[in-house]
Write a structure and sequence with these properties.
The complex is a heterodimer of chains A (117) and B (117). Chain A has 117 residues and is an all-beta fold. Chain A contains no helices and 10 strands. The N and C termini of chain A lie far apart (38 Å). In chain B, a hairpin with a 2-residue loop joins strand 7 and strand 8. Chain B is globular. The chains are: A mainly beta (117), B mainly beta (117). The interface between A and B is medium-sized, with 25 and 25 residues.
Chain lengths: 117, 117
């Protein structure tokens, strides 16, 4: 399974942008980059995903390096509610594609984001 | 998008006993996934469960310890057998389903917090 590397923890001030990095140097050409976050006492929830181009949605932006070996999740204005563990996941096609067409989601260690008031 | 209900939400069990965790999804899904999250750790995939066939276990997990049933396309159970304190974890059920866009994403239950004493 392709691996991701993230910093263990980061801090941000409220109302400021946050850039959460992820390295995935062994990514294959068809692996999608997914980001999930896990709020305290909750199951993980989807944030954003992309393949090659940068992506924006109402929660965040995803910047993907040209060689796809790294990506950055951008929270434009951090709030206290954004304090969570953020996971960068490669949706593994080659190793994890199951007969039905679904994929395995293999979690790395994640980054614990602390937002300071 | 899928909504997942897990029961029980938490339990305290005696060592040597077994606990069965139920996962109900509000839509039909091909694959269901079971994860374990030990205290302060990331999620580890235990197995994938396909309706009508035996579950596929990840390295380090065996059917005798974690038997899984998948009787239909909306329901699965995970049993933690012959429990020891090392089994104290959060167990999460997950499915892949269409999200807000055209692509699929993973959805997670709230988890079952198990404490073995």
């Amino acid at each position: 399974d392709a691996k991701t590397t993230q910093p263990n923890s980061m801090e941000s001030n409220e109302e400021e942008p946050v850039h959460l990095p992820c390295n995935h140097s062994t990514i294959s050409g068809t692996d999608y980059i997914h980001w999930y976050r896990q709020l305290p006492s909750q199951g993980p929830e989807y944030v954003i995903h992309g393949l090659t181009s940068n992506v924006n949605n109402r929660m965040a932006s995803l910047a993907i390096a040209e060689d796809r070996k790294s990506s950055t999740l951008i929270l434009h204005r951090a709030t206290l509610r954004d304090a969570a563990v953020y996971y960068c996941i490669l949706r593994d096609v080659k190793g994890g594609r199951l007969a039905s067409g679904t994929y395995k989601y293999i979690f790395g260690t994640g980054t614990r984001l602390k937002v300071l008031a | 998008s899928a909504v997942i209900s897990q029961k029980p939400s938490r339990d305290i069990c005696q060592r040597g006993t077994s606990l069965t965790i139920q996962c109900q999804v509000d839509s039909q899904v091909t694959m269901m996934f079971w994860y374990r999250q030990q205290p302060g750790q990331s999620l580890t995939l235990i197995a994938t469960a396909n309706q009508g066939s035996e579950a596929t276990y990840e390295s380090g997990f065996v059917i005798d310890k974690f038997p899984i049933s998948r009787p239909n396309l909306t329901f699965s159970t995970l049993t933690v057998s012959n429990m020891s304190p090392e089994d104290s974890s959060i167990y999460l059920c997950s499915v892949e389903d269409r999200g807000r866009g055209v692509d699929t994403e993973a959805f997670f239950g709230q988890g079952t917090r198990l404490t073995v004493v």
